[in-house]
Specification:
alpha+beta; Uridine Diphospho-n-acetylenolpyruvylglucosamine Reductase, domain 2; Uridine Diphospho-n-acetylenolpyruvylglucosamine Reductase, domain 3; Enolase-like, domain 1; 3 domains; 5-stranded antiparallel beta sheet; 4-stranded antiparallel beta sheet; 11 helices; 25% strand; globular
Length: 287
């Protein structure tokens, strides 16, 4: 099947793009890399009157450090991050996530902003960036605003984007040198959508951690205090992982299958173990 007829406009800068989005005529869709929108167009799951291709806008391809925050333009591709053309938030964090997304051809075109705007529960970036405490910067003709990523993701394939608005950048706090990041994905084969995702950021010296379970039919499940998964406390003498806490969270999220919950819990356990193993705890080293 081929896409229904639509108009295509490729704005040269952010102001032109926002002008197009602020005065829509009919159904308007924004396209960055097109790795999600393209198949939807061909399957006629969406039939827009206008597609605004934002891939040539320089403001969306920038990255910079603003104090202790890494700011990545929404138009940066997965391959930009994988290949180091975009700075990382810590040693081999974002690059590790990017390298596991689909296939290289998809990573060459797909963008981090496009992935977040599509909000597929099985996508890598929502889960990984929630663990890293990311914020989303949004732009419209009326101005700019920021949202925590958790507030931006409102449901499966659903976000807090307003009409006339697009993602400008992702803001990621620089990861502490004493923290470890873990990311584990379960899929039947390389390149396939994930069936379970686990991400964790653990700082044993600061006795703090955040853990996330993704690939559920809703926004990822976030444990803002990962200590609840270890009997209430994270530290150099961290205790055993309590599977029942994660299992109960999945039940509350509507995951009825015991087998599916087992997979999700195990993937989270592995992500946490990876994060703990990568956390260079001074207290643990001295013991």
């Amino acid at each position: 099947m081929k896409a229904a007829r639509f108009d295509l406009v490729r704005p040269r800068d952010l102001a032109e793009a926002l002008d197009l989005l602020s005065a829509p005529s009919g159904v308007v869709k924004v396209m960055a890399g097109g790795q999600s929108l393209g198949p939807m167009l061909n399957l006629r799951l969406v039939e827009p009157d206008l597609v605004v291709d934002i891939s040539a806008i320089p403001e969306l391809r920038r990255f910079e450090r603003a104090g202790d925050t890494l700011v990545i333009g929404a138009g940066c591709t997965h391959a930009d991050i994988e290949d180091g053309r975009v700075a990382d938030a810590g040693p081999d964090l974002l690059a590790r996530v990017a390298s596991g997304i689909a296939y290289r051809a998809v990573r060459n075109r797909g963008t981090v902003g496009g992935s977040l705007a599509h909000a597929d529960p099985a996508a890598d970036w929502p889960t990984a960036l929630l663990a890293l405490g990311a914020e989303i910067e949004l732009a419209s003709r009326e101005g700019r605003r920021r949202l925590p990523l958790g507030a931006f993701l409102t449901g499966a394939l659903s976000t807090a984007l307003h009409a006339g608005e697009l993602i400008l950048a992702i803001r990621i706090p620089q990861v502490s040198p004493s923290a470890g990041f873990g990311y584990v994905k379960h899929a039947r084969k390389i390149g396939e959508f994930a069936h379970a995702l686990g991400a964790a950021l653990v700082d044993l010296d600061a006795q703090a951690g955040r853990a996330v379970m993704g690939a559920v039919d809703r926004p990822p499940i976030v444990f803002e205090d990962a200590g609840v998964l270890f009997g209430g406390r994270i530290g150099p003498d961290i205790g055993a992982f309590d599977r029942s806490v994660a299992d109960e969270a999945l039940k509350a999220a509507g995951v009825a299958s015991e087998a599916a919950r087992h997979v999700h819990v195990e993937i989270l356990r592995r992500a946490l173990a990876q994060a703990i193993d990568r956390a260079p705890s001074a207290a643990r080293a001295a013991a």
